[in-house]
Every structure is written in structure tokens, then in C-alpha cells.
Amino acid sequence: MNEQQRIDSQKVTVADNSADKKSVSEKTSADFAKYFEKTYQPPSLKDAKKRGKEEVQYHNDFKIPEQFKGMGQGRKFYIRTYGCQMNEHDTEVMAGIFMALGYEPTDGVEDANVILLNTCAIRENAENKVFGELGHLKALKKEKPDLLLGVCGCMSQEESVVNRILKVHPFVDMIFGTHNIHRLPNILSEAYLSKEMVIEVWSKEGDVIENLPKIRKGNIKAWVNIMYGCDKFCTYCIVPYTRGKERSRRPEEIIHEVRQLAAQGYKEITLLGQNVNAYGKDFEDMNYGLGDLMDEIHKIDIPRIRFTTSHPRDFDDRLIEVLAKGGNLLDHIHLPVQSGSSEVLKIMARKYTRERYLELVQKIKTAIPNASLTTDIIVGFPNETDEQFEETLSLYREVEFDSAYTFIYSPREGTPAAKMKDNVPMEVKKERLQRLNALVNEISAKKLKEYEGKIVNVLVEGESKNNPDVLAGYTEKSKLVNFRGPKSAVGQIVKVKIIKAKTWTLDGEMVEEAVEVI
Ligand code: 5AD
Ligand code: SF4
After folding, report:
1. What sections of 51-183 are H helices per DSSP?
2. Domain 3-200, classified CATH 3.40.50.1390, yes or no
3. Whose CA is nearest to atom 7 of ligand 2?
4. Residue of the CA atom closest to atom 14 of ligand 1
5. How confident is the model over 353-362, as pLDDT tens digits?
6. pLDDT tens digits, residue range 8-55?
7. Which fold does the domain 208-449 belong to in CATH?
8. Residues 444-477: tens digit of each pLDDT
9. Domain regions of the chain by residue span
């Protein structure tokens, strides 16, 4: 299916929100069903689940269509980003498209002519934040009827969300998803011309488009996508539905992008994917994985390379062997475990056991003795017992992670876990989260304390948030360091002696002039 056929078949144009803009919220549910039937086919998580065999097409021919050039003259855009780094990076691409259309960026919603909310669907509270924000923006939209307000990102891929926006927030002008951000010029143009809500959400992923413009946030650190989508289908997770099937970018494109960033003076690259360890598994013509890619990138003259996020199941020996070469490949590995109980892991469909995870950790620690590990953990998965939760605590102690992102399980409509009966009361889940967080803090504090008196390399990002006289930056193991130093150190890697470990951060003093490590 070519792009035009896809647009015609999957795009839903519109739900009429001109006359209905006011009345849509007053409709009865019967009216509503009829209304949807006539004008609107929602995005479908069921369709999003399908994994077709069709080959991914790669395109290098993105152009701003002639008729849209200058559309943004005299107009300003504002994008608010929720969620993960993938979303942050999508925002950079959309900012690139806006600028190519002639729009200017603005830091505040008040003077924006277009506002986009780039949303996250991972947990209910992420979604609630967006609905709350829409509530706030309603007043602004009333004040400025010409303002265009759009919702994009992962939430747009969910039928229930689109329906709720139609019902409760009919003043939204456009909704588009994660697979068609390159269609932003067309969507904007339609939204300007039409009095109706423009909805263009593709349930199935599209092709890989290589040459989209990007405006990166900052000039020190950069995100580089290496793959899109996820095929793992952990039972709690919405991502395989909102981001589609796994599609890897070709290595030569990635290497070219990293080389360009190095030439522009960027100091740190983070390779991005929902499951970076599955990189290359979809290539039909070669056997090439993340280890091979990292080995190539290792040779590029750029001081720091990170990658995120890993899945323990696909983390292979080749990658460990390459990471052990060190140099610009940083020894901080984020390795989400989710639970320390093999029984829970099985129901989560993580496809590894506690023992396999611990073996992997051992392998990594043997090959890279100074590696720092961080993780993600979900507590209160349906029917998680006290004993199973205790296993999570004991695994945490055994691995001694540097830190962790911890979450209470949040049912996501359309996922298998959301259909499971759950006998764990919310009170118990909250208490488990508190106990886990206490352990995370305890070990984290202990690990930070070990830094006192040591010298670390810090990539200086700018002034500290709380004190403009103090500089702040991150170590190779992603510890935030505050120290006094010359402003000329910003953007450089400098050596800092750690004087004091605080709860979450380190205080230090610069020990030399700015020195590049590599
Ligand atoms: N509920 C709670 N946490 C979740 N995560 C993913 N899905 C859910 C969910 N339904 C967490 C996982 C993942 C991180 C990005 O978010 O720990 O690694
Ligand atoms: Fe949120 Fe996942 Fe989408 Fe990232 S990919 S924005 S974490 S739902």
C-alpha cells in the first residue's frame, strides 16, 4: 500500500465539530453512536496489534509541499511534551517541521498560534495530566478563537481517548498519532481551512522516513532514533499498540547522523528505541544487531554514547562484549526488570525469569566491573502476593541498582492485564511502593556516598536550576553534579572532585581546566 492509499484508507477525516462544537457534549449516547457511525471511524488498538509481514519501506524524499511553504509566516508554535525520550525526540522533529513552514517557537502558550500536546499513554496519571491541561486551555481557546489546538502522541492512538476528546473537549482542532507526524503540514492546513475537528490517526505503523527536519533542544546532548515500535507485548503495556511493530533504521543512516552530530560539536548521543536490543532483528538482508551498531559508533569521535531502553530478554553477549571496550560507550545500563518474581514475570510475559535476569546482571558485571545499573519496577501487578513483592525487594538488594523508576501498576485498556481480576487493594499497592522506594533511596544514598573524595568526569550542561553561580552536569553514570566553575566549562567535559553526597545529587569542585576526555 503506498502512502496515498494509506492516507485514504486509514485516515479518518473528521468529526464535524463546527455546529457540533458546542452541542457535541450535549448529545445522548444514542445520538453519539449514530454520529460516530456516520462521520468517524476511531483508531483501533486491535488493528494496531496486528503484526504484518510487509516489508518496511525507507524514504528519503520528505519535502515540505510547495503549497504549504510560508504557512507559518507571522505565527508561533508551542509544543508541550509528556512521557519518554521518544516523545521528546518526536517533538524535536515536529519543531523542525514547524520551522520549515515558517513558524517561530514560543516559550508560553499565551502568545502561541498553534499549541500541540504531545502525549503519553503509559499510565493513567500521564493521561489525566493531559485531560487537565485541555481543561485549562479551553479558556485560552475561547479568548483566541483563531488558536489551533492539537493533541498528538501516544494517547491519540487510543480509541477511548479520541472519543473522550470528541465528547468532553470538542474545542480541540486536530488529533494525530505517532505514525504520521510527517503529515503535520497537511493536518495544519486542513485544520485552518476546516471548521471541523481534523482527526488523522493511523492504527498501523507507517514507513521509516529518514530526512525529516529536526530542531534539537540544546547543542550538547542529542537523541538519535535507532528503531521504532515494539513487538514484545508485555501484558501491562500499551506501547506495542501506540507505537506499532519494530522497525529498525538502516545502520548507515544512523552512523551518518551520529557523525554529523559529532561534527557539529555534540558531546553525548543517546540511541533511542522502545526495545533497543531488538535492533536489526527485522532486517531481512543481514544479520546485524545493536552490538554491531555500537561497535561502529564506538569508532566515531564523540565523547559519550548511551542507549535506552533495554529489554533483558534480547540483551546479547555480542553487545556485552562491545560495551566492555569502554571508551565512549558509557558503562551505565538501564535494564528494566519490572518484578523480582518469576511467577509475576511470567504473567507479565517478560519472557525471562528472576534467575535469567540475575545471570545477565552477573555477566554484565563480570565483563564491565564498574557498570552501573538502573531499572524500572512495577508494584501491585494484578494479584501480586506479599511473597512475590518480597522477591522484588530481595532482587533489588542483590543487584544493588544505582537507582530505579518505580510505578504502581496502572491498567491500560486493550492490554491483556487490564482484563485480569485483581485482588490487591490500592492501599497495599501504595504501601509496597513506599517500601520499595525506601530501599531504592537507601541503596542510592549508599552508592552516592562512595563518590566522596573521588574525581569524576562531568559533562557540564549549564547553570544549576537553583543557583546561577553553580554549574551542573552529569557523570558517565548519569549522576547529577553541582559545582562552582567558569561559565566557559558549559558544553565541556571537566574533572570534578566530589566533596559531598546529597540525597540525590553530588556537590564537588572542579580540579582542572576544562579537559576533553577523548
Ligand atoms: N503500569 C505501570 N507502569 C507501567 N510501565 C509500563 N506500563 C505500565 C503500566 N501499565 C512502566 C514500566 C516501563 C516504564 C517505562 O513504565 O516499568 O519500563
Ligand atoms: Fe509514553 Fe510509551 Fe508513548 Fe513513550 S512510547 S510516550 S512512555 S506511552
Report:
1. 85-100, 124-143, 159-168
2. no
3. 84
4. 376
5. 999 999 999 9
6. 554 444 444 443 333 333 334 444 444 444 445 678 888 888 887 777
7. pyruvate-formate lyase- activating enzyme (3.80.30)
8. 999 999 999 999 999 999 999 888 889 999 999 9
9. 3-200, 208-449, 455-510
